[in-house]
Amino acid sequence: xxxxxxxxxxxGGFAIVLALTACSGTATSGTATGGDEAANVSKTxxxxxxxxGVQPDExxxxxxxxxxxxxxxxxxxxxxxxxxxxFLADDNTTPIGLNPDIARLVAKKLGLELKFENTGFDTIIxxxxxxxxxxxxxxxxxxxxxxxxxxxxxxxxxxxxxAVPAGNPLELSNDDLCGRNIAVTKxxxxxxxxxxxxxxxxxxxxxxxxINGVTLPNVQEALxxxxxxxxxxxxxxxxxxxxxxxxxxxxxxxLTPQMDTRSDHTVAIGLKKGSELTPALQAAVQSVLDxxxxxxxxxxxxxxxxxxxxxxxx
Length: 314
Prior knowledge:
This protein has 2 domains: 194 residues, 3-Layer(aba) Sandwich (D-Maltodextrin-Binding Protein, domain 2), CATH 3.40.190.10; 95 residues, D-Maltodextrin-Binding Protein, domain 2. 28% of the residues lie in helices and 21% in strands. Strands 1-5-2-6-13-7 form a 6-stranded mixed beta sheet. A 5-stranded mixed beta sheet has the order 10-9-11-8-12, with helices on both faces. A two-stranded antiparallel sheet has the order 3-4. Strand 9, helix 6 and strand 10 form a beta-alpha-beta unit. The longest helix has 14 residues. The protein is globular, with a radius of gyration of 19 Å. The N terminus is likely disordered.
C-alpha cells in the first residue's frame, strides 16, 4: 500500500512573526521537505517529500493491528507553529520540519497513509485520550504526568534556552532572570516544569523575586512579544530559538550555554497508554532512526547533534 499524506488544518489566521512561518486556511496536500533536486529552493519553500520511495518495514507491518491495516491511515496531531521542527511551508498549507518528516517516515514504514491535524499543543493529549488522533510527533518530552496517560517513544534529544532582544540590553543571564517577565508556551514542559524549577533554585531559594512566567499560545506569539519588548525573554527549545535568530538576524540573542534544568530533554512520539498500536509504532520509529532519511532530516533542520539511535519506550 503506498503511503500518502493529507493535511487538515483548521481555518483561521495566525500571526506571522518576522520571517517565521505562520498558518491559516485548509489544505489537502501532503509533501515534506528534504529533496536534493530542490537544493536551490529555500528550506521554507521546499515541500519535497522526504519519505518518497521509502518502503514499508515488514517487521513493523507484521505488528500492526488488523484494524489499522483495514483503515489504511494514521492521524497525527501537531501544533504547526514551531519552526524548525513543526511548521508550515511558505505555501501556508504543507507541514514541514523534522516532526512532519518523522511522521511521514513512520507512516511509510507501516505502509499507511498519514493525515495531519493542526491543533493547539495543550489540546493534543486530550485528543489522543479521546481517540481523535492516533499519535503525536510535536517535540513533546516525556514527563511523569504525560506518562500516566501516554505511551511515549523516543526519537530526538533536545535542550532549552532563553532568547532576549538583540544585544541583550538588560544584560540577562541564565542565573539572573529573577523578577523578569519570561515567556513560555502553554502546556509545555518549560511552563509546567522547567521555569518553576529554575525560578526556585536560582531566585526564590536565595530570597530573590521569582521569575514571572508569561504563558502564551505558541513560540511565534512569544517571539512577537519579545521583539516588541513586552516580555524580557523567551524560554523555549534551543533549535527553535536558534532558527528564529537565523531567520531574522539582529532581532534576538540566544543566551549561551543552554539552560541547565537538571533534567534530560528527550523528545518522544506519544500515543494512548497501552494502545495496541504501540509495538508497531515503536518498531517503525526504530526503523526510521536506522534510516538515512532520519540523518538527512536532522541535517536539513540543523539538528544533527540531537539525533539518537534507540527508539526506547518510556
